[in-house]
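Reply to dn_fold:

You asked what the input looked like. This is it:
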Amino acid sequence: MRLSELLGQNLTEDALEAGLDKSVEILGMTADSRHVLPGYMFAALPGSMVDGAKYIGDAVKNGARLILAGPEVDFPNGKLPDGVETLLRDDNPRRQLALLAQRFFKFAPAKIFAVTGTNGKTSVATFVDQILVHAGMSSASIGTLGVKAGDYQLPLEHTTPEPVMLHAILRDLYALGVENLAMEVSSHALSQFRVDGVRVNVAGFTNLSRDHLDYHENEHVYLDAKARPFSAVL
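and this is what came back:
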């Protein structure tokens, strides 16, 4: 995909740095420098344990052409590493990655049902998928049990995958002819903006109880995360 098509409305002077060749092809994207291939975009995401900015050098060595980073990321002498076409700065690089992943992979099932809540996500997503299948519709599910679409199955490390993997899965399901998708959305995924690029048609909320407070600061923060499908994603 050409850089101009990928970035779209982000092609602004205040967001981009360095000379920009809009015809440059971006061949993939990742937030893991070990998975960067020549022509990729590398998302240098801040983390609670490790800052992705520390791995920009590794990503560049592997062929990264575009760097997505927060406004605090800087380079020696203010100069981008050789080989990098441009740097895209964003106040919320995690959310921006989700939006760019949607634009890069483009395709997804036509109708997406998202369910969140402390308990019951897997059951509800499975029930919705089964109801649609029994109604004669093509359907799939994403969640704790992995990706399931008929005979197609893919195990997942997280209930809700990181945005690049998530949108790659959505594209693959579209290619398989899947028109409906029931997916679980965890509070971790919501607080990390993983699904902000997903075009959700219907969202469901099962319940809220004391859980994941080792990750979320308190119950109010936990509730705010669970409410994001209705306040920011739909």
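The chain has seven helices and eleven strands.
Hope that clears it up.
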